[in-house]
Structures are given as structure tokens and as C-alpha cells.
Amino acid sequence: MAERVGFFTDSSVCIGCKACEVACKEWNGVPDDGFVFRATSYDNTGQLGADTWRHVAFIEQDGRWLMSSDVCKHCTNAACLDVCPTGALFRTEFDTVVVQPDICNGCGYCVPACPFGVIERRERDGRAWKCTMCYDRLRGGLEPACAKACPTDSIQFGPLDELRERAAARLERLHADGVDEARLYGESPEDGVGGTGAFFLLLDEPEVYGLPPEPVVTTRDLPQMWRWAGGASIALVGAVAACFLGSRR
Amino acid sequence: MAECHPVGFQWVMEARLRGAKVFHIDPRFSRTSAVADRYLPIRAGTDIVLLGALINHVLSNELYFREYVLAYTNAATLVSERFRDTEDLDGLFSGFDPETRRYDPSSWAYEGDEGATTDEMREGGVCHAEAAGSDSYGARGAGASATPPTDPTLRHPRCVLQVLKRHFARYTPEMVAELCGIPPEDFAELAEAITANSGRERTTAWVYSVGWTQHSVGAQYIRAAAILQLLLGNIGRPGGGIMALRGHASIQGSTDIPTLFNLLPGYLAMPHAQRHEGLAHYLETEGADTGYWGHRRSYLVSLLKAWWGDAATEDNDFCFGYLPRLTGDHGHYTTVMGQIDGTVKGYFVIGENPAVGSANGKAQRLGLANLDWLVVRDLTLVETATFWKNGPELETGELRTEDIATEVFFLPAASHVEKEGTFTNTQRLLQWREKALDPPGECRSDLWFYYHLGKRIRQRLGDDEIDRPAKELTWDYPEEGEHREPSAAAVLREINGTGPDGRALSSYRELAPDGSTRCGCWIYCGVYADEVNQAARREPGSRQSWVAPEWGWAWPANRRILYNRASADPDGRPWSARKAYVWWDADRGEWTGHDVPDFDLRKPPDYEPPEGARAEAALAGTDPFIMQSDGKGWLYVPSGLSDGPMPAHYEPHESPVLNTLYGRQANPARRIYDRPENPYNPSGAARFPYVFTTSRLTEHHTAGGMSRTLAYLAELQPELFCEVSPQLAGEVGLVNGGWATIVTSRTAIELRVLVTDRVRPLRVQRQIIHQVVVPYHWGHEGLVTGDVANDLLPVVLDPNVYIQESKAGTCAVLPGRRPRGQALLDLIEEYRHG
Amino acid sequence: MSRGGDSTATVPEADFRSYYGQPVLKPPVWHVPHMPLYLYLGGLSGASSVIAAAARLSGHDRLALAAGVTAFAGAGLGSGFLVAELGRPERFLNMLRVFKVTSPMSVGSWTLAVHGGLTAAGAASAVTGLLPLAGDAAVLAGALTGPVMATYTGVLLADTAVPAWHAARRELPFLFAGSALASAGAVGMLTTPRAEAGPARAAAALGAVMETAAAAVIERRLGLEGEPYQRGKAGLLMKASRALTLAGGLLATVAGRSRTLTAASGLAITAGVLCTRFGMLEAGKASALDPKYTVVPQRERAAGRRLAVVPDQENGSHTP
Ligand SMILES: Nc1nc2c(c(=O)[nH]1)N[C@H]1C(S)=C(S)[C@@H](COP(=O)(O)OP(=O)(O)OC[C@H]3O[C@@H](n4cnc5c(=O)[nH]c(N)nc54)[C@H](O)[C@@H]3O)O[C@H]1N2
Ligand SMILES: Nc1nc2c(c(=O)[nH]1)N[C@H]1C(S)=C(S)[C@@H](COP(=O)(O)OP(=O)(O)OC[C@H]3O[C@@H](n4cnc5c(=O)[nH]c(N)nc54)[C@H](O)[C@@H]3O)O[C@H]1N2
Ligand code: SF4
Ligand code: SF4
Ligand code: SF4
Ligand code: SF4
Ligand code: SF4
Ligand SMILES: [Mo]
């Protein structure tokens, strides 16, 4: 397996130009998301989904205008991948999480499984879509289209370990400059999804950007759930037995 | 800058990472403000007050870079006794003729120049103002003595520095608060930052774009910045300068090789029918003999040779007579008025969409509807090509399709990725583009169009004398491929120029006045040096010096910073080690450094020009501004501007506020078109209480032909909207996500509403001023459509360059959607008359 | 976030921040009625096969036949709705490309495939009388796949990020087991001669109790995440479900040999468990669509952890 690669998205230098959104669609041939004026600052695509794999959020606050480009987190422990019944979702040699559209059967299970609300089923073709971290480009030795297009290096692509170091240095610098509210999101391997392959530097709480504050990979609890299901199965069999014992002919 | 030049903005972000402090001064809190260190909201149309106050701060606290100012600017030069300032005439400079509303600039001259003025200055004023000649004055270094009288102590009351001091004395922080709405604390912070970051060790840069230019005093905004930067020693030095962020890709290129009516390539003036007799007379009147314009014969003769080749000879003035002549103002808006009046019958619209992009859209469309024929070359069917079936005047009944007799030809054009050629960007850098794919269907490049059009015209020419200019043109580029595409490289090589041996020239210094050299644009000479397309160079930054001279090619002579001799002190030593850029190497007896020196390589710092010297020989070894007749940076402009030798604040033509600086409300020399198609909002009218300003969004491009047609961009900003403060929303009754109608004397348009704290009400003259911010990208064609913001704007122009005032006007705002049809006309009628 | 506008109008009372009140999660995309009906039919089939096996063993042959056919019909119809949900039949085959324990849907698909085969074989044998030994073996094996069919759906829902579902991960299998039992009992009651339907009535009653108890625990234990079950459309469905199931269950105990009461009881229970399935889906969607249910519990968890684990962790910096 090649070295694990990922994104460090530094929202403190994002200028909200949306070049990442457009580059992603151009490269991957993603359809448009409809023409809707949402009146939510400069954001008219709303959120990540089947037809938006990079999404730039605009948050207006007192004297500040936060912008941040969101993307699939390529979780270390990816719920979408775990629950996919067909194996359409798989982990690549770059340690990224990718849907194979020719295998996906549109069961839709990955959709509610993702703790970040990323992957979505496109109703037109009944398949699930999300960021592939430009798998084709990675295989060709190119960096992902969104990172390539980002003029300010808000999206940094590279080996994850290196990015974590860079992020730590950036955070330190911002804290030294008095930007106390700066924080990293998703970079810690100890978090509920084992750390993300795409992590962020944010200037406010994650939920302000539409991110879950403490996401957990649902399959973490799966053994426990199977045990409870086992209990329920036994109860069911027991109950049926009781019914027959109680009402002998 | 983050909004409209996001790729260039990466360097601002980089500078910030290295510790630069970024201020953003703008009426709207944009993406740029979001990442700036400080954002200062300003009332649109008042930057001269702010810049003037900074100048005053620098002058009155003696914070200017004295050595630099003394040696390199005209601070010490004495001004004519006849000059009267706005201080003396309550807002007017001397020489104003209220009849023609134009200035005679002769009283603005340097002492001693008044009597001995060149022809240019004698007759310049009126004729120049008439045909936008004033801007070519500046570019070609208006005539002034190379050695005017000076007072090096800077104490003489008529020396430029003292004149400036008096002129700007009334530009105080209090005035800034009163007119711009910027509180004194914020002003103090800005003033402290720019002065602390100027001098020997540090430099400050100013960056502007159309927020400064699209005003009826636009050119003077830039002049104000130039004065400030010269005073602080920030010109010709790394990290300094005034960065004009330009617009369309290669809009810089289209001023160098101009699409402007008043210029020939390389900023040579277009000959005027009444003013220029022949070549000799033209050369005599158009520019100074000292400084580099002293070589203008070489530039022009080489140009004529490039165009007419062997037909151009010494005996026939090198075909100078073949050049078209100006007869007055042939600018965009005057042409449109001519269409409405029926004097302009045909119209080529190439890569432009005036039905949406130009001020007073209705006048634009009325003009189009009154033509005999119209040719539109564009990528898609833009509004200018479909005004006759989709224009808003059809809805109101002002026009009816069946009554429009204009014959419209739409010719599909190849886009920039479907053809090769150069872009000249904002910092004069030429970059060669390869063709990525073939144009679809019938689309052809503009080069193809003009070349083959020319060929067909030439085929039809007879032996008439009048046909000779077209017949004798050199029109013989190699053709390539199925569609016989002319070679763009061959065109670039022709622009570069060739010597007597037919080889590509390498520098404009090689151009000769005798017809032995050919050159299509003297400032581009060298772009094909050594027969190599220098613009195609792509050496990565990591493999060359920090100045990166091997990436593309910058005019002139691949210089990256103009006037860079000013980066060294008068003795030729760097001002500081940190800011070393170009310096005098005494051992080798030449100028050297990181960049190509913008100076005669072997002219020592102590060079003194001999009596009667011409061209560059007339400039001393300490005169860095080599295009100027006196080699100095001009703090005061003795000639060349049509509205004054120094900037003065005037209110926009339409303003809700009184000009408390002078008894003159608006620029006295501004160009107005007082006609029924172009009614104005009265200044100060209570029914138009809000400041109206237009701007751009990253997501769209200008009139929208290139962005509203693309789904990936259209979805990002799908509807025309206005940005208003919560306070204004409350006052008018607007809701976020709802509709608003904006009304001016021209028309009313409807927009969606974005209520945002980013737009702040300003306290101006003890009242609260609300600003309404509208992006102007929408029209009636494309995937996403909307009303045309420019339909709200009047035509009122800066007198120097004829740019429209689209950044500051007045309006009324109503909640809800606009009325349709006749009801719309009734509403406007009501507002027009109050 | 939004200014002076209406877009925060939908933000609920709880004290939390969000991005324009937009959901953090994607709601389940499963279609109505396909998915709830599949859940119902799968449960029905699973519990019925257990009943069929027990009936076979205890000699309730008519009940065994009815339950066996029901088990087969439930599996068959259920597969139909699953295919309809997926769009094309071959998409179901894709489910069997791999087997993944980490995917309840994979486990469920394989179970459905095996269970469907077993119930089909059992039902075919019972109806035609052919291969009786193999038929019996299939019916008995159905007692192994049946409970999985009835309960895996609880895991299917719980193993998502949907707050109302994931938080109820303990109770959901019991709820689905109870619900399945009730529905199988109800259908058994309706399709078996009343004399032999005693165990079915008992199953209906017991299932109703089990479902109701599990639902009550969910509402009580979950706190904020349990709210979606009580509000809006989901709340109505769940209330209706409770009333119908309990009433049906009670009726089952007294129905005895009354045809009318049996019919009423069977129908009430069927309606009730159907409401449960629709209500579950609605509650899931509602809880995913309102960022409150995602943000507030996660915040509380984070705060709890911070206090417990690293009491001096600075507010605002990264949480472990
Ligand atoms: N994405 C994108 N990029 C573009 C273009 C585009 O349409 N879209 N257009 C290109 C072209 S043709 C051009 S010319 C450039 C223009 O680039 P910019 O000049 O940056 O464009 P604008 O948004 O029109 O105006 C800039 C700012 O000026 C502010 N402003 C208005 N009035 C005043 C004033 O009186 N004083 C001050 N200080 N500021 C004022 C506006 O609020 C606005 O934020 O962009 C080029 N780049
Ligand atoms: N209210 C208001 N009005 C403004 C401004 C403002 O700030 N506010 N800004 C002004 C400014 S700075 C500008 S530059 C103008 C822009 O206004 P316009 O120039 O009128 O508008 P554009 O949409 O840029 O038009 C350019 C057209 O060229 C086409 N095109 C692109 N490439 C090619 C090509 O290679 N060949 C040909 N033939 N066509 C091509 C595009 O499809 C497009 O339709 O708007 C001005 N108007
Ligand atoms: S963010 Fe969601 S879609 Fe992306 S890898 Fe993680 S679980 Fe899968
Ligand atoms: S929708 Fe496709 S990718 Fe998602 S879980 Fe189902 S098969 Fe896998
Ligand atoms: S990595 Fe590729 S697929 Fe993913 S968001 Fe970026 S451009 Fe799109
Ligand atoms: S391209 Fe970079 S700067 Fe632009 S919106 Fe995306 S992340 Fe931000
Ligand atoms: S559109 Fe082109 S010219 Fe404009 S910023 Fe982007 S890359 Fe630069
Ligand atoms: Mo422009």
C-alpha cells in the first residue's frame, strides 16, 4: 500500500472562491446541483451530496466572515465502507475511501451511516456518490483537482503524517498570533472515527460549519448491537416456545 | 482582490504569512475583507478625501522620504505664478471655461514654461479633452522643460511641495470622518501603518481596480495614490508601487495594442484630422523631446513600416497619411448616442456585451435598435445579439420586434482555449497560451476573422486612391490547418519587429527613425528576441531568481519593475540591503541588480546632461522616471490631465451628500449627456436617499456571457441580488431571501435580498447613510437570468478616460417585485419628477 | 450564521449552533412505502418461520402450514419491495457479491436469501406434500434464520448515524422482535382455524407487549434523541401503533374462538406494527434532518468526557 494521503483544509486562508467546487465538478463530471438562491450568505449549493463533492460554507458572524471548504473525510474507520453490503465502497491503496459506481446497487445504506452526512444517493441514477479523492488522478501521480485549483493553498494535499505536522505548526503559529479560537478538526487518530483522512483547521466550533462536533463511526458499536440482536432472537424463540407451551392442544 | 483576482490574491496571502499587514478599504465587506487584517468601510466615491488626508498627514508631519522626494520627484520644481488652486477658487483650478466646461491647462505649467509652451500644450487642452487625448499626454510624457527652475530647500511658496501642502491642508481626519464615514481612530491606524512601512527599509504597496476608476473623478483617484507613493518613496522599488488590477484576460494587452479609439500601439497618439498635418507635424506636437519619448519617430516609423512594408518610404511619410484620423470623441458612449441620433449606422461588437455591461442599458439597446446592421462575435448568443427579441423594452412596449430594422449578424467565436496567442496580464507580463482543443462548429478565432475579412476586402479593391491603404497593407501571415488559421506566432513576431537583415530585433533601442526597422509595437520589441518566443518561457520559480525573469516576458525589455533606478539612492547605492534591487556597479561602470535596469546601462549616477541634449541624453544620472520629459515622478502634473493638476474631492454626479470641502459639488469637467434617454437623479433628492454601488462576484464574469451560460458557475450564484444592512432592511421592509425593487431615474429592477451585517450603515455628516451593493452580472439570456443592474445607471464619465461612473450613484429601494409593462414606466415617471 | 433573515426560523428551542439550521446528517433515503413494508414483511416472515417450526414440532399442523406459507410469502413479497427499492432485480444479486459482518444489510441479504430458500422449500413441501423430510428440515432450519430475519432489521437501523436509531441500538432488536412476533401471531390467527390458533393468539399478545415495552423504554431512556419518536408525523404513527398493537394484543387474549374479535385483533395488530415501521422511518428521518439531535447529544458527550477524562482541557481547543 502506498503511503496514506489526505487533505489538510486550512479554513483560515480560504477566500471562498469556490474554485475547488468547480474544479471537482469539471474533473469528475459531476452534475450541477440546481439553480436555487438560498439566501444563506454566498452559499447556494448548501451541503455536500451526490452532486457536490466539495462544498464551501460561508458563515457570517459579527465582524467575521468564515469560509471553509468541506469534503468527504475519508475516515480511518469509515462507516459508509463498513456498512456497504456490496463492497462497492472500498479502501484504496492510498488509504482513501472510494465508491465503485459499477458495483454500487443503490441500496442507500451508506447514506445514513455516514456520521458527517457526506455520501448521498443520486435519485436519477440510483447510485451513491461522493468524493473519490480523485482516485484516477492519484493513480496518475497528480494531486486532486480541488487542491490543484485552490489559489491560497487552503486545501493542502499530501501524505497524512506530513499534513498533521504542518497543521500542528500552523495551529501553533495562529495561537501565537492570538487567534485562540483556531482548532484542528479530525486530525486526531483518537477521535470517534479513528481520525480522518481529510482534516481541517477551523476558527469556530465544528457545528457552526455544519460539521458534527463529536462524530462516531456507528460500526464501533456493532458487536454490541449484534449481541443485543442475539438476545432479542433468543427472546423471540423463547416467546414462541412459551406460546406453544402455554397453549397445548 | 480576493473576489476578482483570486489567483493573484495568493501572493497577498503569502505576504500576510510573512508578516505583511493588509488593509481593505471598500464599501462592501467582501471576500477580501474577510481575510484582511483590517477592513475599513468607506462611502463609495470618497477615496480622494481619504488619500488626500493621508497625503496631508505625511506632508504636515514631515513623514515623507525626503531624499527620495528631493531627488526623484518634482517636489522642488516651481509652478507658474498664474496657477490658481481650488483653495483660491473654491473648488476650481485656474483655466476653467464654464461655457465648454473644460480647462485650459496652460496656467498649470512649471515656471518658465508658460510662454514657451510646446504646440501640444498650446492647443492641447480643448482638443485633447474632446478626444480623450489627455490620457495620452501622461503616457507620452507631456511637454515640459527638462530642467525647470527648482528650489531644493523646498521652501519656495510656489515649489510643488508647498503647493501640495496648501492644497491638501483641508483634507483632515475630521473630513475623512465627515465624508467617508471612517472614524479618526481607524484613519490613524492606517496612516501609522503606511508611514511606518515606508522609507529605506520598508515599502508599502497599494492595489486598486475599478472601485477607484469608475468615477467621474476616476483618474484623479489614481493620481492621489501616485502622490502618496512618491512622497513615501514607494515607486520603482520592490514591494512598492500602485498595482492596477486589470479586468478581462489581456485587457492590458488590449491597451498596449489598443482597442481604444485614441491610441496607436505602444501609447502613440492616434492622429487627429484637424491637428496633424503630416508625419513631421504630428511628431513635433505629440510629446516631449526629452526622455524616451524623444525617440517617438523611431517608434512610429517602425510601426508604419510593419503595417505598410515596402510601400512605406521616406518620400511618402512612411504612409502616415494612410492612418485613420480622429475628428473628436469616438468613445463608446458618444457612439451609442450617435446610434440613437441616427448618425452611427453600423456596429461591430467583438467580445463585449454592452446591452448588459455598459451603463444605461436602455440607451445601449435603443442604439442597437436604430442601426442598419450589427455584427456580434461572441461565444454564445449574448443579450446584445438578442435585444430585438428578448430585451426588457419589449416587455414595456418601448420597442416592438417588428419595428426594429437592425440586421443582426451573429458570428460564433472561438474561446481562449481554442486558439493560441498571448495574454498580457496586469503586471505587463506576456504569457503564451497553447491551443487546448479545436473550436466547435463554425466558431473561429478573432484573428481568423479579421485576417480573412481583410483578405476578402482586398480581393474586392480596385485601383482607386482611396483603396490604397488597405491594398498596400502587409497582409501575409502563414496559414495553418483546415480552416487556414493565421499563425499567431507570426503576428507576435511582427509585433516584436525585425531589423534590416530581416531578423527579429531584441530591444526597442534598436529601432531606427529612417525606416530600416519594422516593429508593430515598440514596447513589445524583444518578445521575440533571438527568434525565440520569449512569452512562452515557463521556467519554474524554484529554478531561477526571486524576480523570475524567465517566466514569460514583461514589456518593456523584460523589466519586472518599472522605473527601478529609483530603488537605488542618487549615488546609485541600494537604499538598504533589504530593499536592494538595481544598483550602480562602479567597477564595471554599469547598472546591475536583480532585474533588468530601467535606465541607460552605462549612464553613471553623476551624469549631467549637456545643453540642448535630446531624448534620454537630456536626463541626468539621477532621473529615474525616464518616460517623463524631466525624468521626475510628478507630484504635480503641469499638463496632461483634463480636470486639474492635483486631485480634488468632488462628489459623484449623483450623491445624497453635500460636498463640504468646496463650493463645487461634482467634478466640474465631468462629461455628462443630458438627454431624454439619460435622465439623472438630482443630487441630494430625498426620494433617492441611498448610495448605490455595483460590483462583481467571484462566481460570475462581467456581463455574464461566460458564466451564466455554464451550469457549474450559474448554480453558485443563481440570481441577481442586492446586499443590504439589517438596518436598511428594517427601514424599507426587506426580508432575507425576499425581493426588492431598486429605482433610479432610468428604470427599476427587481432583485433578491441578502440581508447582511457585512454592509454597514455609515455615519456621514451627522446622518446615517445606507449603501446598497449590487453585482451586475445578470441579463436575460443564459441558464440563470435576471434584470440588468446597468439599466439603473446613468451615463456620466470621467473627463480624462471616458469611463462611466458605475461605482457610486443614488437610488430608492422598495420591498417586493417591480411592476411590469406600462406600470413600470409609470413608476419611473413618478420618480423622475419627484 | 444567517442574519436578519428567516432561515433560522426553523431552529428549535434547544441551545445549540448550526449552519443555517441545516442537517448535519443525510436522512435515510429509503422510499416509503417500500422500506417500511419490507421491514414489516421480513419480520413477519422471520417470526412466522419460528412459529411454523414450533407448530411443526408440537403438532399444530394447520398452524404450521399457515405460518410456513406466511413465512414464505413474507420473504417473497419482502424481496419484491427490496428490489423495488433498489430499482432493478439484478441489483439485489449485487448484494450477494460479498458477505460482510460489518454490514447488517449484507448479513440481512444473505439471511433473506437463505431464509427465503428455506421457507420456500418448507412451504412448497407442506403445500404439495412432496419431499416431506426435506420440507421438515427446511421448516426447522427456518427457526434458525427466522429470528435473524426478525431482529437484524433492528441492527440495520441502529447501525447508522441517525441519532434516534443509533441511540436506540439496544432496544431496537427487541422492538423489531416483538413487532415481528405480533405480526406473525396476528396473521397466524387470521389464517388458522380458530381451534388451532391458540399459540398464534398468544404470540400476538406477547409480541404486542414486547413491542410496546421496547418502544416505551426507547422513549424513556433516550432523552433528547428519543424526542423524534414523540413528535410530528412519527409521533402520531408511534402513538397509533401503540394504541392499535396494545388493543390488538389485549383482544387476542380474550378473542378465544370469536371470529369477529380474532379478526379485529389480527387487523389491529397488523395495522399497529405497520405504523411502527412507518413511524420508525419517519422518526429516523426527522432526527437526521434536525441538527439539534446530532449536535446537542454530541456536545453533551464531549462535555461529559472532558469533565471525566481531562478536566482541565481548554474550552475551544480540539477535543480528544
Ligand atoms: N470573478 C470575476 N473576476 C473578475 C471579473 C468578474 O466579473 N468576475 N471582472 C474582471 C474585470 S473586467 C475587472 S475590471 C476586474 C475588476 O475587479 P474589481 O475592481 O475588484 O471589481 P469590482 O467588484 O467591480 O469592484 C471592486 C470593489 O470596489 C468597491 N468599490 C465601489 N466603490 C468604491 C469606492 O468608491 N471606493 C472604494 N475604495 N471601493 C469601492 C466595490 O464595493 C468592490 O468591492 O475584475 C476582473 N476579474
Ligand atoms: N455597473 C457596472 N457596470 C460595469 C462595471 C461595473 O463594475 N459596474 N464594470 C465594467 C468593466 S470593468 C468591464 S470590463 C465591462 C465588461 O463588459 P463587457 O465587456 O460588455 O462584458 P463581458 O461579459 O465581459 O463581454 C465579453 C464577451 O466576450 C465574449 N468572449 C470571450 N472570449 C472571446 C473571444 O475570444 N472572442 C470573442 N469574439 N468574444 C469572446 C464573452 O462570451 C462575453 O460575452 O463592464 C463594465 N460595466
Ligand atoms: S466521511 Fe462519510 S462518506 Fe466519507 S469516508 Fe467517512 S463515513 Fe464515508
Ligand atoms: S448505496 Fe452503493 S455504496 Fe452505498 S452502501 Fe449501498 S451499495 Fe454500497
Ligand atoms: S479530491 Fe477530487 S473528487 Fe474529492 S473533492 Fe477534490 S476534486 Fe472532488
Ligand atoms: S479553492 Fe481554496 S480558497 Fe477557494 S474556496 Fe476552495 S478552499 Fe477556499
Ligand atoms: S479567472 Fe483566470 S485570470 Fe481570473 S483569477 Fe482565475 S485564473 Fe486568474
Ligand atoms: Mo474591466
TrEMBL record, chain A:
Matches recorded under InterPro entries: 4Fe4S_Fe-S-bd, 4Fe4S_Fe_S_CS, FDH_Electron_Transfer_Unit, Formate_DH_Fe-S_su
Record flagged with keyword Transmembrane helix: yes
Subcellular location: Cell envelope
Note on how the cofactor is bound: Binds 4 [4Fe-4S] clusters per subunit.
SUPFAM superfamilies (alphabetical): 4Fe-4S ferredoxins (SSF54862)
GO annotation (BP), single: cellular respiration
Pfam families membership: Fer4_11, Fer4_4
Domain 4Fe-4S ferredoxin-type stretches: 5-35, 63-94, 95-124
Binding residue positions for [4Fe-4S] cluster 1: 14, 17, 20, 150
GO terms assigned for molecular function: 4 iron, 4 sulfur cluster binding; metal ion binding
Name the record gives this protein: Ferredoxin
UniProtKB/TrEMBL annotation, chain C:
GO cellular component term of the entry, any: plasma membrane
Subcellular location field: Cell membrane
Cell cycle keyword on record: no
Residues that span the membrane, as ranges: 37-57, 63-86, 107-131, 137-160, 172-191
InterPro entries: NrfD-like (IPR005614)
Secretion signal, residue range per the UniProt entry: none
Annotated Pfam families: NrfD
Assigned keywords, A-Z: Cell membrane, Membrane, Transmembrane, Transmembrane helix
Membrane topology: Multi-pass membrane protein
Similarity comment: family membership: Belongs to the NrfD family.
This protein's name: Polysulfide reductase
